[in-house]
Specification:
It contains four helices and twelve strands. The chain is an alpha+beta fold and about 250 residues long. The longest helix is centred in the first third of the chain and has 39 residues.
C-alpha cells in the first residue's frame, strides 16, 4: 500500500508541478506587464502587451561618431549618459522589478548596474524621457526591434531609423510627433538591405496622415550636456490592433 501511495504521489507531482510552475511564472510576467502598462499610461487594451518580450534600444550620435545612449525613464528606471553603446532589455519580469524597486539601474549592453539610493533620488529629480515604445506583434513574440537615433546640433534636426526584420516592412507602423516643431525624418528600413529605405516620411507628411497622439515620449540628446534635445510621441503597433483605441480622447 505504501508503494502504491508513493507511486500515486510522485505521479501527481510530476503531472501538476509543471502546471504550478507555469502559472507562477505567468503571474509574475503578467504582474510586470500590468505595472508597465499603468506606468506608461497606455490608452489601449492590455492585449497589446501579450507579445511584449524584448525591448532593445540603441542610439548613435553624429557628434562623437560613436554610440551615445538614449536616456530612458519610467517611474523606477533611468539609463544615464555614457560614452558607450547602451542597450536596454525589458521583459515583463524585469519591468516588475524595476517599477517595484527602490533603486535606479544603469543598463549597458544588457548588464544592469545598481545605483545607491541617494544617487537614484538625485537622478530622478532631473528631466529624463519616458519609456518610448510599446510592442504588439502576435506572429513573432520574440521580435527584437533596434531603434537608432541621430541628433545634430548644426542642422537642428533628427533622423530616426527603425530597422525591421526581413520581410516585415509592411506590417509595422510608427507614428511620431515633435513637440518642438523641428523637422523630423522617419525612415523604415528593411534589415536585409538597410541602405534601401522601405518607407520615407517627413514630419510634414506624417502630420497630413496623422490624427494620433500618444503619451509615450523619448528624448534624444546631441551630447551628454543636452545642448539640443528633440522630444516626440511615438508608439509601435501591429496593424491587426484596432487603431481606434489609440485615438486621442481629448480631441473628442
Amino acid at each position: 500500500m505504501n508503494l502504491l501511495r508513493k507511486t500515486l504521489y510522485w505521479s501527481l507531482l510530476a503531472l501538476f508541478a509543471p502546471l504550478i510552475w507555469a502559472q507562477t511564472g505567468a503571474q509574475s510576467t503578467e504582474t510586470g506587464r500590468a505595472l508597465l502598462l499603468r506606468a506608461a499610461q497606455y490608452c489601449g487594451s492590455p492585449e497589446a502587451f501579450k507579445s511584449l518580450k524584448v525591448l532593445q534600444i540603441q542610439a548613435t550620435s553624429k557628434m562623437f561618431q560613436t554610440a551615445t545612449p538614449i536616456e530612458v525613464k519610467t517611474d523606477r528606471v533611468q539609463v544615464f549618459p555614457t560614452r558607450v553603446a547602451t542597450r536596454m532589455y525589458i521583459t515583463g519580469q524585469l519591468a516588475s522589478e524595476i517599477l517595484m524597486g527602490e533603486q535606479a539601474f544603469h543598463v549597458v549592453n544588457g548588464v544592469r548596474f545598481e545605483l545607491p539610493r541617494v544617487e537614484a533620488r538625485r537622478m530622478r529629480s532631473l528631466l529624463w524621457a519616458e519609456l518610448p515604445f510599446l510592442f504588439k506583434h502576435a506572429n513573432e513574440p520574440s521580435l527584437k526591434v533596434e531603434f537608432a537615433g541621430k541628433s545634430t546640433v548644426e542642422e537642428k534636426s533628427v533622423d530616426v531609423v527603425l530597422i525591421l526584420p526581413p520581410g516585415e516592412k509592411e506590417v509595422v507602423q510608427l507614428y511620431l510627433e515633435t513637440e518642438t516643431g523641428r523637422p523630423v525624418t522617419l525612415i523604415l528600413a528593411d534589415q536585409s538591405n538597410p541602405q534601401r529605405s522601405a518607407v520615407y516620411w517627413t514630419f510634414g507628411d506624417w502630420r497630413k496622415t496623422g490624427g494620433f497622439h500618444f503619451p509615450h515620449k523619448i528624448t534624444l540628446f546631441a551630447n551628454d550636456n543636452a545642448i539640443q534635445e528633440t522630444r516626440w510621441d511615438a508608439v509601435l503597433i501591429n496593424p491587426e490592433v484596432n487603431e481606434a483605441i489609440f485615438t486621442d480622447k481629448s480631441d473628442e
